[in-house]
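Researcher: Next sequence.
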Amino acid sequence: MESSKSKRILTLFLSMLYISAFTFGGGFVIVTFMKRKFVDELHWLEEREMLDMTALAQSCPGAIAVNAAILVGWKVAGFAGMAAAVLGTVLPPVAILSVISVFYRLFAANRLVALVLRGMSCGVAAVILDVSLSLGRNVLRKGQAVHCAVMAAAFIATFFFNVNVVFILLAAAAVGVLTVLLGQRKEGKHAA
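Model: Next structure:
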């Protein structure tokens, strides 16, 4: 049993190390690859759990990638899993930034580097769009009117009215709490 847990922790560390080292674009892109690895490939998490962890990671202070690594690591293998996931997540950026800081002046003025980074931002946008459509499709497929309405309202508030994401998260959380409370109230009436 212990070797199974050790193997799971090692897999968690190496997976996060790989995802973090070869993913550009920030937390949402890393979360996308975490979903593919831990939900689709390894089946350690359910898709709903990953959605909830993504929401929690975004709403907590700090880097989304590290917050998501904390949540996934804890769920998969407790404290040791959390430590392994966080270490795997932060090692590549620390190493890359250490190297870049040494050569910053060379990179800052290089037009080729600027063009490569601009091209990467297009790829990042495509990955974020892919995960948004994938997760949004699952919400629409389940057809829960409240979730569909919150998703549409969040998009409209962000895209058309440029509402700060903090207010959108607070409103979505309030709707979620009300939905749960109303659901519990209905269950209580049906049980009585």
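Model: The mean pLDDT is 86. Helices lie at 2-21, 27-41, 47-59, 64-102, 104-108, 111-142, 145-159, 165-191.
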